[in-house]
Amino acid sequence: MKSYLFPTYQRKSFEIVEGTGSWAKDNLGNTYLDFTSGIGVTNLGYQHPLIESALIEQAQKIWHTTNLYENHLQEAVAQRLANGQDFLSYFCSSGAEANEAAIKLARKYTGKSEIISFENSFHGRTYGAMSATPQANIQAGFSPLVPDFVYLPFNEITSLERQINQNTAAVIVELIQGEGGIVPADIEWVQQVTQLCHDNDVLLIIDEVQTGIGRTGTLFAYEQYQIEPDIFTSAKALGNGFPVGAMVGKEKLKSAFGVGSHGTTFGGNPLAMAVANEVLTIMQTTDLLSEVQEKSNYFFERLTTINPKYIKEIRGKGLMVGIELKESLAVVDVINELTDVGLLTLNAGTNTLRLLPPLTLTKAEIDIGIDKLKAVLENPTF
Ligand SMILES: Cc1ncc(COP(=O)(O)O)c(C=O)c1O
């Protein structure tokens, strides 16, 4: 059948048409345990009753107003994102846009142009975010990219010490590289990067698009690194499936993002804000985050019971899990076979199986997932 879509995605041949909690149903009647959460988006599961009511209630009041009027919901979400610290928020609709805003703010505030990012990282597909994403397959054919982006090795401090200079505006980093293969940053390295930025008046941008909103066991991953970013970005799970992004920066940066300096029609839309406010309220007022840490321990413990015949390394934090496979087993084949036995999973980086289950999953569901992983990873049929 002819498709009227640009073929930018490699799609499976079925459609997910329904979801409840950790479970998804396709148009052919198959049920799956979903360890993708729509690539780290539906962190609170499908059809969460409080999120659903927040959206429906707001939909019955007003869907959209422009940013030319007061918006109490934006204020509420920004206050939750600040979490008692001197952070201000700018709202948009995606992770790439949040990083784009961060890059623009960093250049404008510092009056410098160089942005440093790290090999294997992923920050999005818009020109600025893509220019910070040093992956050949992502940048190919789109040159010229935005100038003054410099790429350095991840988890290695000497090159950064050498590179930081009078024209460096910002360093942008993922604390666990998500698309890059679930590769965690070393805590000492992150602290050294933070210190170097501080000593050289360079802004530190933490990209929390995939790691944020409870994914690693704290609201944002940076909380576990004993650092304070100048800017952090959020999207994906902030709206649990409703498109929303946020660029959150220190109050000292306020003067560079004055009236007319940046903006977008849908940023902070009432529907998005009603949902984000409910997501953050759940994260900040329930035991969910401590439960994530507990479930994480259980998950990683159970993963070690899988026969490691085809496993090179298991990495991650919280419920952000990467299983790097040996070359003898191709991750795409594993994903297909897991789909056949009813478990949805993702790939990332080099031959790495990526698991991003909803944070609300139960231990019993972890057990079901582990049984399916065992079935395929111990006895692949291909
Ligand atoms: C770390 C990180 N940054 C940015 C993005 C881009 O977000 P979006 O796809 O919403 O533009 C992603 C998406 O996967 C991501 O994982």
TrEMBL record:
Q: Name one GO biological process term.
A: L-arginine biosynthetic process
Instruction: Give the family this protein belongs to, as stated in its UniProt record.
Output: Belongs to the class-III pyridoxal-phosphate-dependent aminotransferase family. ArgD subfamily.
Say which domain of life the source belongs to.
Bacteria
* Encoding gene (name): argD
- Name this protein carries in UniProt: Acetylornithine aminotransferase
Q: Does the keyword Transferase apply?
A: yes
Query: Subunit comment for this entry?
Result: Homodimer.
Entry EC number(s): 2.6.1.11
A GO term, aspect molecular function: identical protein binding
